Amino acid sequence: MSAHCEETGLNPPDLSVTIGSMILKNPVMTASGTFGYGEEYATFVDLNRLGAVVVKGLSLEPRSGNPPPRIMETPSGMLNAVGLQNVGVRAFISEKLPFLRRYDTMVIANIFGETVDEYRRVAEILGSAEGIHAIEVNISCPNVSKGGIAFGARPELAAEVTRGVRGATGLPLIVKLTPNVTDIAEIALAVEAAGADAVSLINTLTGMSVDIEKRRPHLANVTGGLSGPATRPVALRMVWQVVRAVKIPVIGVGGIMTASDALEFFITGATAIQVGTANFVDPAAVLKILDGIGEYLIRHKMTNIAELIGSLDTDPLTSA
Amino acid sequence: MNERRTMQIGEIVDNHSTAPDHFLMAIRLPASFTTPAPGQFVMVRETGRVEPLLARPFSVFDFHRYGEDCVLELLYRVAGRGTLLFSRMRPGNRLTVLGPLGRGFTIPDGIRRGLFVAGGVGVAPLHFLVHSGFRTAGTESLREAVFYFGARSLDLLAGLARLSGLCDLRICTDDGSRGYCGPVTDLLKRDIDDHDPKETVVFGCGPAPMIQSLRRLLDNNRIPCQVSLEERMACGIGACLGCAIAIGGPGGKTEYRKVCEDGPVFDIREILLTSPVDAQRK
Fold first, then answer.
1. What is the pTM of this model?
2. Cβ burial, residue A25 (10 Å; 0-12/13-18/19+)
3. CA–CA min distance B22, chain A (Å)
4. Domain A3-307 -> CATH class
5. What superfamily does domain B8-101 belong to in CATH?
6. Which of A64, A228, A229 sits opposite B256 (nearest CB)?
7. pLDDT band at residue A7, thresholds of 50, 70 and 90?
8. Where are the domains of chain B?
């Protein structure tokens, strides 16, 4: 409850949203890869207040990740090539999940693989674990059996991996879309038809940065994923394209640093949002964003976040 | 439930140049700021500024409590846009500080002699260690500190004035403008074998080539050695996985550790002498 509500005696606005069969107490989540396994932030943030924690991407086997340097700051953003380093799905369940189970928040497991079968197996293993509320599928990974093209780059490949995971689990299924495509709405439609309960977008934009003195790339991997405020207008535009194309909920992700950034996504039509790079800048950012959303609704006399979602007015301005 | 941690707002009380491109900054912080252990670091950003995006990590150079306040000192070199902007800040300007973070130096039991090996601005964490951990009022008579300090030239021996009187100083410069002419590890090499490994420990911090020669120098020696390492990092608290360094895992397999959380201080024999990136450069 915000301090404002306590002062005025008003009921706090209803921030709950529904994704598939999952009801979130509020629409604010942490983006995969920016909040560890929750534990890293538990001394900064009361995890009970979050709508959901989306954990670092999980694969069937542990992955050591890319050699350093792995990150580089760029104008209003950062490039990363961490290389999907993670403990593997089994170690996550035995070592990381018990901690998260202690909290009253939804736990969403982000998964990835190099083949459809790998995605399926990770989803199956998670389905038998207690305390996982939904699965988010990262389809930005190269498909090893298809010459390394990203699953998320072609509608038929995106649909294939979605169908595969859908068949392996009854948990709510979110598919996280890559912006590195020609037509993101086409991909969104394909995964919706293949059984996704929601889509989250955008993943990072592929980028690059060069040290001109050494004439070497700043990242050992040469290219990396761009995140942070620099990506926000692109993310918002893609959310706009996708909400008009699909019927399933859309989760907005990309450069959300403040409540006002998040509000742009809700107004555009996002049902929920994820906070990513902002967690690196301020470990308590996600709660400041949540508080700001509630304060905005009160200020605008809205009692439910549903009144805000998709309320964008694009009619030509008429002068009185 | 653990105590909630937050970022703290501090005020610059001093920020002056001590050598070309080197600055010593003093930040006044609330008394609730946790006392750092030698070798720990802080993440610092200008309060209210949205660009640059990320905070910058700095080892603690010194820390003191005065009544209701405490003062944190950072010695830094202008290495990019972030540090350039810090160098232009004035007393009264505000900084947001997260920390202290990471695992610092440990002083093994029974140690009578510390050999400190600093290259350039790498002097910062070693200054704090010698000053507030290794040679305190209680241990002064028991422990000897020999400080090997190297830089490109005399004017780049930033922080030198603050070391005088604390320890037995051995200076070297690449151009011979003061002390021994050559790398700091050469100077150490001359007397390393005179020390009993059971009573001696080496603490190092400096550029990658210095760390690598230190590692080679200690290959045939049993003296323990801890080094403070540097890597670009976004969060400082173990989430971004940006600050990876390679270590030799079981079966000679390369594994990565986080400088922010597993370090910044590591056992020098644990880290891989040549990371895959260094191999590429050859």
1. 0.93
2. middle
3. 21
4. alpha beta
5. Translation factors (2.40.30.10)
6. A64
7. low
8. 8-101, 113-229
